[in-house]
Structures are given as C-alpha cells and as structure tokens.
Specification:
Strand content of chain B: 5-15%
CATH class of the largest domain in chain A: Mainly Alpha
Structural class of chain B: alpha/beta
CATH architecture of the largest domain in chain B: 3-Layer(aba) Sandwich
Number of domains of chain B: 2
CATH topology of the largest domain in chain B: D-Maltodextrin-Binding Protein, domain 2
Distance between the termini of chain B: 30 Å
Oligomer: heterotrimer
Radius of gyration of chain B: 27 Å
Strand content of chain A: under 5%
Number of strands of chain B: 17
Largest sheet of chain B: 5 strands, mixed
Largest sheet of chain A: 2 strands, antiparallel
CATH architecture of the largest domain in chain A: Orthogonal Bundle
Strand order of the largest sheet of chain B: 2-1-3-13-4
Number of helices of chain A: 16
Number of helices of chain B: 19
Chains: A mainly alpha (325), B alpha/beta (584), C mainly alpha (307)
Chain lengths: 325, 584, 307
C-alpha cells in the first residue's frame, strides 16, 4: 500500500520533472532561435579557438611521452609520469618550487596599484595634466626586458648608482650590492615590475570608470560626502566586477613567473632565491632539446594554475556574484 | 638509394666511356668503383669550360676536378638548403650573391633554393622542420649534436658503401688530412655517418682562452715590479687601490681586479689557473675537472680549490675585487675597461677593446707553493664544425648534393673562395701558395669596409666547406700579401688578431696537453649528464661566489663537500671518465 | 533612451572644498607627482642614452642631458633597408590584426555577456581551458602548415589577434555597463539583437573598444616570435625581428673580428643601439595612445534608464 502510494508520488514527480524539462527545452530552443545572431557573433572567435587551440591540443600528450621528432607525437614512447617524478626528485626541486611560489605570491601585491592609479587619475580635473601623467606612466610597458634589467643594474650599482646615492643622502650606507644579494632579489623583481606595469594595468580601470554614473556623484556631493567616501562608495563598487574578474585572472597565473626577466637578473650569488621553474626549464632546454620534459613541467605548472583559477572563481562567485563562468 | 647510386654511376661511366672512348679495363671491381675510376680518368675532358670562364683568367677549378662524375652530370637538379651566417657574425647576406655558390651553379648546373636564417630563427626552424617531417634536402650549418643523435633516422646515413667515395672523393681527401682518425672520427656510436664537417682546423691556437692581463702603466705609477707570487700580487693590488694608479687625479676610482661572470670568458674562474686548476675547453664547467695521466680528476673538492677561494675572498674583503663582477653585464665591464678603471682583468687579446698593446702585459703568478699554475685551454684545438652539413633521409638528391658539395672542395682556390670570397680581395695566390691579402685596403671600392664585413658578404666562412691545414697558412698571421708579394707584416699593436697571436705563442707552454676529445655520443648518456649539470653547476657556482663574498668556514666547506656528493658531482666525473675511455 | 547622453558640464557646480577633500587631493597629487618623477627619469635616461657617447652610458654617471651628442645608434638602425621594410610589414600586421581582433573580440565578448544565450557557459569554459592547456609549438606548426598559412602575411594578421583574456575583459565590461533593463526596454520597443548591438551597445562600449584596440595593436607591434617561427621570407619580416637581429649582430662575438677598428666600432654601438632601438620601435605606437585616450572621458556613458 504504502509502497504503491509512494510509487505514484514518485511517478507524478517524475512526470512533473519531465514536463519541466520539456518546457525548459522548448524555452531554450526558443531562446536559441531568437538569439541566432548572437551565435553568429561567437562564431569567428569559436572557429579561431577551435582551429588554433583545439586543433593542436593532441600535443598535450608529449608531456607523458618521450618525444622524438623522428617518431612523431603518436609514435613516441609512452612514459607516463616519468618527467614529473624526475623533476620532483631533482635536488633543487623544493628550492625552485618555493622560490616560484614566493615570488608569485609577493607579486600579487602589485594588483591594487593600477586601481589606485586609475582612481586618482579619475580624480584629476585638469585634462592636460591627467593625460600627461597617464601617458608617462604607461610608457615603461614598452621598455624591453634587457634594457630594464640593464638600467636596474646601473641604478642599483654599489659604485655610483643613483639608488645608493639617494640612500646616502638619508644617511644610509652607499655601497649596498643590491643585485648580488639573494634577499633583495624578490623585492627588486616585484617592485620594478610594479613600476613597469602599473600604468599599463590601469588602462582597463580607467575605461571601466567611464561607466560610473555621474548623477550618483552629484547626489552624494549634495549629501556632503567627501571625495574618499565617494570613491569608496561609488567608484569602487561600480568597477568592482572588473576588479574581481581581473583578480581571478591574476590568481590564475599564480605560478606564472616569466623566465626572461628572472633569467637576466640572475647571477651566481642570488641563484638560491632566483631559480624558478621557468628559468630551470629554460636552462634544461638550452642545453638539450628536452621537449617532453619541459612540456611536463609546463603542464605541472598549469594544472596548479588552473586549480587555483577554479577555486578563485568559485569563491568570487559566492562572495560577489561575479565570475568567469 | 643504393640502386640510385649504381644507376647514376653506371650511367656516368657509360657516358664517359662513350665520350672518351676508353676505359673498361677494370671490370673485375664492383660496378660503382669502376664507374668512378673510369670517370676520374676522363673528368678533365668532360668538365669543360663553364667553371673556367666563371673563375676568370686564372684556372681555378675545372681541370683539377677529380670528382669522377662529369661536372654537369646533375645539371637541372634543384636543391633546398637551409643555412645561417657563419658563427662570428650574424649578418644575413643572400647566398646567391656569394661567389662560390654562383660558381658552383654555373659549373654543376645545380640550382639551390636557399633559406637563410639568423641564428635565433635557426634553432627554432630546425626543430620545426625535424618535427614536421617537412625537411629540406640539407642543413648547411650545424644543427647541434643532440638534435642529430635524438633523431638519427631523419638523417641520411652517408656511411653507405661507395657513396662518399663516388660522389665526394675530394672531400674525403680533406677529411684524411684534417682528422688524425680520418673518416672514423665522423662516425656516430652506431657506426653511421650522419653529418659532414665544415670549417677550418687549427692547431696550437687556444681559441677559448682569455688571458689575465695587468696594466704596466699602473705598475709604473705605483712604482712596483711585476708580481710573481700570490702575495706580491696582493701587494700590487693594494697599491692600485690606495694610490692614484690610473693617474686621473682621483685616488679612489681604481678597481684593482676586474672580472665579469656574465661576459665572455672574463670569468672569475680563470683566477683558479694560478692554483693549478684550469679549464679544458668546455665552458664554465670545464674548471670542475681535469685530465691527468688519462684519469679524469675532480678539482672542485681539492685543497687547491679551497686555497683559491680563500685567496679570492681575501681580495674581495680588502676591496681589491670588482664587487659587481658577479652581476654586471658585458656592457658595464667594457665601460669600466674603457674608462681605465681596471688594473688587472681578462682579455681576448691585449688590444681587445682598442686598448694600447704596449700597456698591457700577461700576468702569471704562482698561487700556491708546490702547485704549478696552468692556463685555460689546450694545445690542440679543433675548430672544425663536425656537423656542418646534414642531409635529410628523405632527400631525393643525395648524389647531386654530395657532388655539388664536393665540387666546391675540389681545389684549394675554390675552398678559399668559399671561405673568404673571390680571389684578389681577402686572399690571393703567390707562386702556388695561398696567402691572405691586404691589398683590398688600397682599393677605393672597399674603402668603407672592414675585413669582417668583407668576409661575411663575399664568403660563407665556416658554413661552406672543410678546409685542410695546408690550404692556407692561417696560423702565421703576420704574413700577408702586400702589393701581391708576401711580406712579414710589421707588428701592428692595434691589430687584435696579431697581438693575440703573439700572446698565444708566448704562452703555449702553459696550456694543458690532455683533454677529452669531443666525440659523438649516445643521446641517453648525454641527457643523463644534462640532468646532473642543470642542478650541479649552479650549486658549485653559488658556492664559489658566496665563499668569495663571505669567506669559507670549515662548516660551510664540509656542507659543500656533502652537497657535491648529493648533487652528483662524482657521477659527473665518472661520466667524463667513460667519455675519455670512449665507452659512451 | 532619449536621455542617454549626459554631458560633463552639469557636474561642475562648485561646492566649497572641505578640509578632508583638500587632504585627499594633496595625497593623491603627491602620489601622482612622485610616480611621474620616478617614471620619467628612467624614460629620460633612455632617450638621453640613445644620443650619448657609449663610454658614459654604462659608467653609471648620472645622465641628465645628452653628453657628446651622437647619432651613431640611429644611423646604424636607419642605415639598414630592413628597417623600412620592417616598419611597413609591422604596420600591415598591426592594422590588419587589430581590426580583425578587435571586432571579433567585441562581438564574442558581447555575446558572452548575455545571460539568455544557452550554451554560452560551456563555450566559455572551453575557451578558458585553452588559456592553460595547449598542444605546444609543433602541433600548432603542423596545423598552420596544413592550412597552407606558412610564410603568409595572412597568418601574421590572424595569429594572436584573439585572446581569451581580452574576451573575458570585454564580457565583464559589457555585463556591468549594459544593464539588463536596457535590453528589456529595447525588446519591448521591438528592437532586435542586431539593432540593439549597433545602436546601443556600440556607442556605450567606446571605451572598451578603445582599450581592445590598444591591447591588440601593442601586442602585434611587439610580437616577433610568430614571425621567427612561421616566416622564412625576409621580405615579410616585421620590424621587431630586424631590430633583434641588429642587436644580436652587434652584441655577438665581436672579439673575433679581424681588426681593432671594427671591434671598437661595434663595441661602441652595442650600448647606444640598444637604447636607440627602444626609441625607434616605441615612438610610433606611442602616438596611438592620445587617439585612444579620447574615449576614456567620463560622461560618455548613459546615466541610467531609471526614468
């Protein structure tokens, strides 16, 4: 008896669900038909991604093979996780991993700088002054890494570098060997990075700030809110979705310490804090064409990145409602 | 392939026989060799005029061609060849403009579609060509041992019987002259031949050495004698530091001892020479081992090593070393040399940076009692590129390619044309001998050129053919043709090569006799070593730098010795022992 | 909809600045001035160094103005015909690639910003996946080869014009700045997707359009790796490849050159050229910025559709 009733209930529930499904499907279909043009909008990008990214995707497997050009990707010997374990067993693995993580996490402090710059710039009334500051701060983006590192070496020279001179003006020691000290490496790396990319990074926020409703500002001003309050309660909230998306993307590159700048700044004195995964892979590849090995380490890196991205995205979705998907 | 050779050779033989109406006496031999020898006897008649005309009034090529196959036998063949500029300079010039390739095309009728890349693009493109299977007929410039050994089946095996003998006999003659072991030294561990050498061999010329030099004017300014021991050097450096040694009025701007670990070979390692530790030709890591009486001996864990580091630390602690040496770039080091800030440093030649030859002198001291100092480098130095030409296994034109390559190697004149461009500019002939010529300096059309741009634009340098030692007297850099007559040039202290050559002769006895002769090795073995090195080398390098900066304690020394073991230093030494014994 | 465009003028009614506002201004201005100084000196240094005698550049002397005015770096760079052909090619690739990339990115970004598009979520995930995982150089090369795009200008225009990162940025911008109410109102007015995009979305997205143009143009302008990999015809090489060549040439193995004069000349050039190259390669792209900046002005946006 009970069973039967329950069965009926279940049945009706199933029916309900099915009906809902059908209704939903019909709605979806209707939406799809209505928005066909939007699919056309997506088409070129989707084609591009399909051809240039998914087309070659089968190449991922070389991370698990001993790739040799002569055998091709499918024909090379399958070695499974050999490369990852080899990497993890190298004597310097933990040092390299720690350095990478440390520099990455430290680099995160660069995140708010472009936002601060954008907000301050937004506050400048004089259009010409604003444009001038904007142009100047964005120019360092165009300096090549070689020249940047060359300038760092000159400016931080213990002999007559401008930084030591300035330190001397304030009564400090004038012969600090900044470039040769392992404990200074991450500071110089991160802060020169902030210097170089702050202006460039602020562009997106400057653009986002154009969307702020001026009426809100006017109203708040009438209510007696000061500038800081208005920034905090009007500007920031209205660009918050952009900030969050940029933050998620930034977190998704947590292990992405590029090789070029680190490599150029590296020397035998600071190597204990400047050897990171990317420089290690570069050196490995330089000496020997280890396609599979570097692909495996790259994959290792990106899996971590991807996991962090997923976590960051989930968290952002819960906390603020903005997310990548 | 085999069939092709036979067919080609047979055809060649028949054509020649018909034309010449002779031959046929050696029927007992294999067909291939028959054809080749027959052809050889008659080559002079068939290899007619075109090459001769092209070369101008002097006969440079045609009649001496001993290829064995009629010169224009492969006329109409089109070859795809990838190449890059010779190593010393990356200036890209169209190969079709170069005299030797023009001559080769006119003579053989073989056309080459060149792809000329810079060294940066080269390594990327070669990788992709290998990976995509879309190979050109040949790479004429080294692609590196490891790329060959990892993909050995992609390259044509030239050890095939009779192949080189038939199509590249002139080239083989040069190989016999250049390498003590002849063709054997071109074999890979599996016995095959996958690459042919190019370039110029040299003996008694330690190309990779930079010399420790001291500024004599500075010595005079501080009133001191040339130091001969570590303690005396220390005194001299102190004087450089304390006095106005460069005489510019400022007693504080002198840096007594300069080096630059990131620039060329001005590396601090070189100072280990005074303590009996020297590099034997393979980069920075060369200082970590030495060959003594046939045994590969570790150096990085010895008392001499420690004494060296402690001495350098003393210099550093007393402000005698350039503190920026570990991090500075070549540009910064160069600027300091040019500003007369260094009293002692390392140089390619005494006139390396346009400095005054008479001012700088070779600095040689004994660092430790009972230890004989040794200079970096080796007495014998092979500068040929053993993987200069690689041919694709899929190429349909192997005989034509070899024939073309062989043609360029058929006479000394042609080889020189390949190397330095047409006769009469950078080289010339006098009574049958070939000399470098200085006469271009007086010709208005070359007024704005330097020797190096001329070499680059007209010749193909080390990326063309293999030269033998006898082809021209490169070693004797002082003998040039001036106004068409050989002359011993007056020593020009501003000439970088001359001054280096002088120094090399002066220091020859300080070089090592033994070293590990480079051979082609098993790819897996090479990769094993690479894995060790990627961790070991930075560790040792870091220990060197930190001990020079901060000094050595027994504790740090013992920890370092332990690190050497865990990082695989002794496996690395053993690897080289095997390499020396020819077991890899 | 009628009151879409607001003008800047209205907010100009002056209210007396209170002390906290003045404090804020003081702080903000100090920050901007300090930042400008810290940034402008190195930039000035590069410009000055490109004209200065090489001996002084790396000696670490404080350079405030060019010393011993030299044009050697520029002469060397411009003497080369390759530079002009490189400029031409870069211009083609940048203009073509930017036009293509910006349009595709904006279209896709907008479509992704719509909540009523079934399947877009999955597609987005598929896009994002490619930011992290790829087949690597060799399979990509094979793909390009099979498409017959090796050594073509078309490839230089297409390659790297579209990045998922940019699409995400556009999407997030549209999500915030094109309110759903607008679409609802437009739909009630009988406005289709096409009309809505052209007449409402486009005018409201000028700022992000400008940003995309800048991003894509700069990445094209600076790119050289694709050219190195996919081009073999030197007549198609972009500027950056030639500039790298010139740098490498002068920096390489100059010890081995034959005579001291040549060695000296090359040594002199390396340092100076490095700085001149930056000036030469950056100056044109810098000129783009002012045009872009125009669209970053406040108030171009609508107020609201509340009314």
């Amino acid at each position: 008896m009970r069973n039967g009733r329950r069965g009926r209930r279940v049945k009706s529930f199933v029916n309900q669900q099915a009906a809902q499904k059908i209704r939903k499907r019909a709605k979806t279909w209707k939406l799809m038909k209505k928005n066909w043009l939007l699919y056309m909008f997506l088409l070129p990008a989707a084609l591009y991604i399909a051809i240039f990214h998914y087309g070659p995707m089968y190449g991922l497997q070389i991370a698990f093979r001993d790739y040799k050009a002569v055998n091709g990707i499918w024909g090379s010997k399958w070695v499974g996780l050999k490369w990852i374990t080899t990497f993890m067993n190298t004597p310097r693995f933990w040092m390299i991993f720690k350095n990478t993580l440390k520099i990455s996490l430290y680099s995160l402090i660069s995140f708010p700088f472009p936002i601060i710059l954008a907000v301050f710039l937004n506050n400048v009334r004089n259009v010409r002054r604003k444009k001038f500051v904007q142009t100047v701060t964005y120019m360092p983006h165009f300096i090549s890494t070689v020249v940047l590192v060359g300038m760092l070496s000159l400016f931080f020279s213990p002999r007559n570098g401008i930084v030591n001179m300035l330190v001397g003006l304030f009564g400090g020691p004038t012969d600090t060997y900044f470039m040769g000290r392992a404990d200074y490496f991450s500071h110089i790396y991160v802060w020169s990075g902030i210097w170089q990319s702050m202006g460039w990074g602020s562009i997106i926020y400057v653009a986002a700030l154009t969307g702020v409703d001026q009426e809100l500002h006017d109203a708040a001003q009438v209510d007696g809110a000061n500038k800081l309050q208005r920034i905090w309660h009007i500007d920031i909230p209205s660009i918050l979705p952009t900030i969050i998306i940029m933050l998620i993307l930034r977190l998704g590159h947590i292990m992405g310490v590029g090789y070029e700048k680190v490599y150029l700044m590296q020397n035998s004195l600071n190597i204990t804090s400047s050897e990171v995964i990317s420089t290690y892979v570069y050196k490995m590849g330089l000496q020997n064409q280890k396609f599979s090995y570097s692909a495996a380490i790259g994959l290792f890196n990106n899996v971590i990145n991807f996991i962090v991205l997923i976590i960051a995205n989930k968290t952002a979705d819960k906390v603020s409602g903005s997310s990548l998907w | 392939m085999r069939k092709q050779i036979l067919a080609a050779a047979l055809a060649a033989g028949m054509t020649v026989s018909l034309l010449a109406g002779c031959g046929g006496g050696n029927q007992t031999q294999t067909q291939t060799t028959t054809a080749a020898t027959t052809a050889a006897t008659t080559a002079a008649q068939t290899t007619a005029a075109p090459a001769q005309q092209a070369a101008g009034e002097e006969t440079t090529a045609a009649q001496e061609t001993t290829d064995g196959i009629p010169v224009d036998y492969f006329a109409g063949t089109v070859l795809e060849i990838y190449t890059k500029p010779a190593a010393s300079n990356d200036i890209v010039t169209d190969p079709n403009q170069k005299e030797i390739y023009k001559l080769a095309e006119e003579a053989t009728g073989i056309h080459v579609n060149w792809t000329m890349l810079t060294s940066e693009a080269w390594s990327e493109q070669v990788n992709l060509k290998l990976a995509s299977g879309d190979m050109p007929d040949a790479f004429l410039s080294s692609i590196g041992d490891s790329k060959i050994s990892d993909n050995i089946e992609l390259f044509y095996d030239l050890s095939e019987e009779g192949l080189l003998e038939t199509y590249a006999p002139n080239f083989l003659t040069t190989v016999e002259e250049v390498y003590p072991e002849g063709l054997e030294s071109l074999r890979w561990p599996d016995g095959s031949i996958r690459a042919l050498p190019t370039g110029r061999p040299e003996t008694e010329y330690s190309e990779n050495t930079w010399f420790p030099m001291i500024n004599k004017r500075w010595l005079e300014n501080v009133n001191m004698e040339m130091p001969t021991t570590a303690d005396e050097l220390y005194e001299v450096l102190c004087a450089f530091r304390d006095q106005d040694a460069n005489g510019n009025g400022d007693p504080n701007d002198e840096i007594p001892f300069g080096f630059a670990n990131k620039h060329g070979l001005a590396h601090i390692h070189n100072s280990a020479n005074y303590f009996g530790i020297a590099n034997a030709k393979d980069g920075d890591s060369g200082h970590y081992k030495m060959v003594k009486n046939g045994v590969v001996t570790p150096t990085a864990d010895t008392e001499e090593w420690r004494a060296w580091l402690e001495y350098m630390h003393k210099l550093m602690a007393d402000g005698l070393l350039d503190v920026e040496g570990f991090s500075q770039s070549g540009d910064e080091w160069t600027a300091k040399v040019n500003q007369d800030l260094y009293g002692v440093t390392y140089m390619f030649s005494p006139t390396h940076l346009g400095l005054d030859f008479n001012e700088w002198e070779f600095l040689w001291i004994q660092g430790m009692e009972g230890v004989e100092p040794v200079l970096d480098g080796n007495k014998y130095y092979d500068t040929t590129v053993k993987t200069g030409l690689t041919i694709s296994a899929d190429s349909k034109n192997v005989p034509a390619l070899l024939h073309w390559y062989n043609w360029m190697a058929s006479t000394r004149q042609l080889k020189m044309t390949a190397f330095l461009g047409e006769k009469g500019i950078l080289w010339d002939e006098y009574e049958g001998e070939i000399y470098l010529s200085d006469d271009w300096k007086n010709k208005p059309e070359f007024a704005n050129e330097t020797a190096s741009t001329l070499t680059n634009n007209r010749g193909a340098g080390g990326t063309s053919v293999l030269l033998s030692l006898d082809d021209y007297a490169y070693d004797d850099r002082n003998t040039h043709l001036v106004n068409g007559v050989p002359m011993v040039l007056e020593f020009n202290p501003k000439d970088s090569t001359q001054s280096r050559s002088k120094l090399v002769k002066q220091t020859l006895d300080l070089l090592q006799d033994e070293y590990i002769f480079p051979r082609f090795q098993d790819p897996d073995a090479v990769s094993e070593r690479t894995f060790i090195e990627t961790d070991l080398m930075p560790m040792i390098d870091n220990y060197i730098s930190t001990s020079i900066m901060d000094g050595i304690t027994d504790e740090s020394w013992n920890a370092y010795l332990k690190d050497l073991e865990t990082y695989g230093y002794y496996d690395w030494i053993e690897w080289y022992q095997k390499s020396l014994d020819g077991e890899l | 909809m009628q009151r879409m465009i607001r003008t800047r003028g209205r907010s100009a009614n002056r209210i007396r600045q209170s002390w906290d506002n003045r404090l804020f201004d003081a702080l903000a201005n100090t920050f901007l001035i300090l930042l400008t100084i810290v940034t402008i000196y190195p930039l000035w240094f590069i410009l000055v160094a490109s004209f200065t005698d090489y001996k002084l550049i790396n000696a670490g002397t404080l350079l405030l103005y060019p010393k011993g005015f030299h044009l050697m770096g520029y002469e060397k760079v411009f003497a080369d015909w390759r530079i002009w052909s490189g400029y031409m090619n870069t211009l083609i690739y940048t203009v073509g690639g930017t036009a293509f990339g910006a349009i595709v990115t904006i279209l896709a970004g907008y479509a992704f910003s719509r909540k009523d598009l079934p399947g877009s979520g999955i597609l987005m995930k598929l896009f994002i996946f490619t930011m992290y995982f790829g087949g690597g150089l060799v399979p990509t090369y094979l793909m390009v080869k099979n498409l017959g795009l090796l050594d073509t200008r078309l490839l230089m225009i297409l390659q790297s014009s579209i990045s998922v990162h940019n699409i995400i940025v556009v999407r997030s911008f549209m999500k915030t700045n094109i309110p759903d109410e607008l679409l609802d109102a437009a739909t009630i007015d009988g406005c289709g997707n096409g009309t809505f995009f052209v007449s409402i979305v486009m005018p409201l997205s000028k700022a992000i359009f400008a940003v995309m143009i800048l991003y894509i143009a700069v990445s094209h302008w600076n790119s050289y790796f694709n050219a190195l990999i996919y081009l073999t015809d030197r007549n198609k090489y972009p500027l950056q490849v030639f500039l790298r060549e010139i740098l490498l040439q002068t920096a390489q193995n100059h010890e081995i050159a034959e005579d001291a004069e040549a060695v000296l000349e090359m040594q002199q050039m390396v340092a100076t050229i490095r700085y001149s190259v930056i000036v030469v390669s950056t100056a044109p792209i810098l000129c783009v910025y002012p045009f872009i900046q125009k669209y970053f002005v406040k108030g171009v946006m609508i107020g609201s559709v509340k009314g």
